[in-house]
Amino acid sequence: MQVIEVLYSLHTDVTMGYNNTIDMFTLKKVLSAFILPPGVFVAILLLSGIWFLYRRNRIAGIINCILGTLLWLSSILPVSDIMLRGLESGLGIPEDIRGDVIVLLAGGVYDDVPDMSGLGAPSEDTLARIITAVRLQKKLGVPVIISGGAVFEGKSTEASVIKRFLVDLGVPEGMILVEDKSRDTIENAKYTAQICKAIGCKEPLLVTSAYHIKRSLISFEKTGMKVTPFPAQFKTSKTRRYLWYDFLPSAKHLKNTYIALHEYVGLVFYRFAY
């Protein structure tokens, strides 16, 4: 009996300690979400809105509450998923992978930062595209065209940074072609199409982030070149289940909402401007 009582006591102590740990973990997550941006601005806007309403300043109170609510909604996972899902819908990984060249679109670099083989490093989105392009190149053994110039004068070209990473990851330097004049997606398509025609490639595989595929396809259609999209870096899932912490404001989710809005604006602009 004494042994059973001791074991029961130990089990109770462990369970209580575990529950306390869970409570502290939850508290930490909630507090950090509203101490760090954008959560701190959500809290300031909502609390100030409530204060203005209490002081009978209805206009200021309503405006602040609306702004706080919009910022909160923009920075939670379910909303960013809804925004991105429209861009990624209908896309998938091709089962029968064929192509005579891989077109890798740059998606930003960190200019002049230290790296093990030089200066400059790909952004997180660009890195995901690089990994996909390297895997494809190893599978197919075809050349890679890197498309990405310097968006602003005085910066490193994105293609030069990406090329260094491709070589480091084992792609033969002789299999890499560089297009370093483009500043946006429409110029990616324009200059890449010229290279493909010059080297006689007619079945390009287009590698870019899944959310960027639709705008890229519009751009290549404008050049008259048909490409096979090979999306990298899907950000949404059809089977994702949302939990309580997915409704906490997060800079990561706010960034994804911004990315989606940027793409939707780009889609409209590219449809009518070019």
Number of helices: 9
Structural class computed from helices and strand pairing: alpha/beta
The fraction of residues assigned to DSSP E strands is: 5-15%
Largest sheet: 5 strands, parallel
- How many strand segments? 7
Ends apart, CA distance between termini: 84 Å
Task: Give the helices and strands as they follow along the chain.
Answer: HHHHEEEHEHEHEHEH
In order across it, which strands form the biggest sheet? 5-4-1-6-7
Helix amount, in percent? 55-70%
How does the overall form come out from the CA principal axes?
A: elongated
* Mean pLDDT over the full residue set: 92
- Poorly predicted runs of 5 or more residues: 1-16
Radius of gyration: 25 Å
Key phrases:
single chain; 274 residues; alpha/beta; five-stranded parallel sheet; 57% helix; disordered N terminus
What report would you give on this structure?
The chain is α/β, with parallel strands linked by helices and 274 residues long. Helix content is 57%, strand content 13%. The protein is built from 9 helices and 7 strands; from the N terminus they run ααααβββαβαβαβαβα. The protein has helices at residues 2-35, 39-54, 58-74, 77-88, 124-140, 158-168, 185-199, 213-223, 251-273; strands at residues 101-105, 109-115, 118-122, 144-147, 176-179, 204-209, 228-232. It has a 5-stranded parallel β-sheet, with helices on both faces. Strands 2-3 form a two-stranded antiparallel ribbon. Helix 2 (39-54) runs antiparallel to helix 3 (58-74), helix 7 crosses helix 8 and helix 8 packs parallel to helix 9 (251-273). The longest helix is centred in the first third of the chain and has 34 residues, at 2-35. The N and C termini lie far apart (84 Å).
